[in-house]
Amino acid sequence: MTITINYKNKSSKKNSENIIFFVDEKYNISSLKNHILRAEYSLISDLIKTRDLKKKILSFDLSSKKKIILVSLKNNFTSSDTENLGAEFYDLVKNFKQNEFSLNSDTISGKLMKHVGYFLHGLKLKSYKFDKYKTKKNNKVITILVIGKHKPSLKDQVKFNSIEEGTFYTRDLVSEPGNVLHPDEYAKRINSLKKYGLKINIYDEKKLKKLGMNTLLGVGQGSIRGSYLVTMEWNGLKNKSKPLAFVGKGVCFDTGGISLKPAKFMEDMTYDMAGSAVVVGLMKSLALRKAKVNAVGVVGLVENMPGGNAQRPGDIVKSYSGKTVEILNTDAEGRLVLADALTYTEEKFKPKFIIDLATLTGAIIVSLGSEYAGLFSNDDKLSNQLINAGENVEEKVWRMPLNRNFDKLIDSKNADMQNINYVGGAGSTTAAQFLQRFILNKTPWAHLDIAGMAFSKYGGALNSGGATGYGVRLLNKLIEDNYE
Predict the structure, then answer these.
(1) How confident is the model at residue 457 (pLDDT cuts 50, 70, 90)?
(2) Cβ count near 35 (within 10 Å)
(3) At 190, which helix (H) or strand (E)?
(4) Can you tell me the distance from the alpha carbon of 385 to that of 93, in angstroms, rounded to the nearest whole number?
(5) Looking at residue 419, what DSSP letter applies?
(6) Which residues contact 469 (CB under 8 A, 6 or more apart)?
(7) Exactly one of 335, 437, 473, 477 is catalytic; which is it?
(8) What value does the mean pLDDT take over residues 16-32?
(9) Residue 15 pLDDT greater than 50, yes or no
(10) Would you call 6 exposed, middle or buried from its count of C-beta atoms within 10 A (0-12, 13-18, 19+)?
(11) Which residues are within 8 A (CB) of 420 and not within 5 positions of it... i.e. 6 or more apart?
(12) Less CB within 10 Å around the terminal CB: N or C of the chain?
């Protein structure tokens, strides 16, 4: 099912058979008098007395062909509250026989006038479905005509649309099966984003070997597919100010390698590239809305397979940074991909900050479930900006500890470090502590472990289950509030 939103300047009592109005939390409908017929107003006044006014949305059948839907807003509603209400409206309207609705923005007032856009944004985000491989699709199209003087501005329409496009692109990438979205195909799809004004560079295995990115290459060497580092640059400022950098883990399928995962739920490992998908979706969104910022996205794309040439437990590899790593467990592979990507990003682009995203550890799910991403950082200012942005869009993060006392858990007797903590405990922290060693020049850095957030079996407020697109809206908000 598809949601289409159109805009019209003037409202009329004859605009549509089905009309959506905003009212206050007490369902005071006096503002409707100028927008519906007197007989309809009287009927709704009577019917509303029989309804549960604790509900946020009420629907009235005025005839077999006409509905009037009332959406109640509280004065203290945040933008996220209104987005969630839009998502709730989608769950209601998708079951209606009617396909066309007019949303009258003239019945909203005061500080809530800008919330029409958030309502529609939540509606669109909740409508996402990944049905590409279904032979029978729901081809229903619901059209919403937005009328009245309180429509979102053209600038806001572009902003919301770009965030939706970026989020949906991320969800699409995460939803694709591993036999389709392997590293070779993934690199091609990213390259196609050039048409939006992004500068794309693809480093294949030959180039990566020359650069010395052996921790990244080691993860993918058991696969018949290639391994890649892909950079995406958006230059939205005329000056050459330092860019904001976003780095993503792109393990397109993770068997665990020689340290093979259990068969149960291994099919979910198609989403082990979700961190990279967030970076790609974010960069697409920034380009679509012509963001006034310089930004770079860097993703490492590999497939972790137990082939005849696969990396072995006990191998020692030299990273791009020059530091050596002893591989004790080939299923702790994401940090190896990120290690080279982080150092390269810092050295090549000299950014204001680096934020990396990865479905890195199961331990973070034990700690925070599916409510918060784990935040690890060397910078209080960046951490607070991420926390505030997360609260504003309900893509929350929770700061976890980093401390040099954890270093002893990843020090190796045979190399500079080992890729897991064999003592046990603090699995997410020691993984982050490992990554921090590859930030060489004290660049402000934050690591988001999104293992519990990237995919949802049961769905959430703004998604219906499956890939969530978590992170695109969070990072967009971070940029919008602090760097534009």
Answers:
(1) confident
(2) 21
(3) helix 183-191
(4) 36
(5) S
(6) 128, 166, 167, 168, 170, 171, 174, 278, 281, 463
(7) 335
(8) 90
(9) no
(10) exposed
(11) 328, 329, 332, 410, 430
(12) C
Return the structure tokens found at 405.
């006392």
The verdict on whether 335 is a catalytic residue reads: yes
Which residue out of 56, 74, 114, 261 is catalytically annotated? 261
Across-strand partners of 70?
21, 58
CB 317 within 8 A of CB 215: yes
The 3 state secondary structure assigned to 366-380 is HHHCCCCEEEEECCH
C-beta separation of 337 from 229 below 8 A: no
| Each residue's pLDDT tens digit, 152-165 | 999 999 999 999 99
Six-digit token string for 252? 């397109």
* Sign of the C-alpha dihedral computed for residues 74, 80, 82 and 87 taken in this order: negative
Torsional sign, CA 287, 291, 292, 293 = negative
CB 327 within 8 A of CB 218: yes
Nearest CA to 103 out of 145, 157, 154 is that of: 145
pTM, whole model, 2 decimals?
0.96
Which burial class, exposed, middle or buried, applies to 451 when counting CB atoms under 10 A from its CB (0-12, 13-18, 19+)? buried
For residue 261, indicate whether it is catalytic: yes
**Percentage helix, strand, coil for the chain under 3-state DSSP, each rounded to 5:** 40, 20, 40
Radius of gyration of the chain (CA): 25
The answer on pLDDT for 34 being more than 90 is no
DSSP three-state, residue 59: strand
Task: Give the β-pairing of 67-73 and 373-377.
Answer: unpaired
CA–CA distance, 167 with 467 (Å, rounded to integer): 10
For the segment 316-345, the average pLDDT, to the nearest whole number, is 98
pLDDT-derived band of residue 12, with 50, 70 and 90 as boundaries?
low
216: exposed, middle or buried (Cβ count in 10 Å: 0-12, 13-18, 19+): buried
Res 9 pLDDT > 80? no
Whether 199 and 348 have beta carbons less than 8 Å apart is answered as no
Integer Cα distance of 219 and 329 in angstroms: 11
- The DSSP 8-state label assigned to residue 82 in this structure reads H
CA distance 407 to 426: 11
Check residue 305 and give its pLDDT.
98
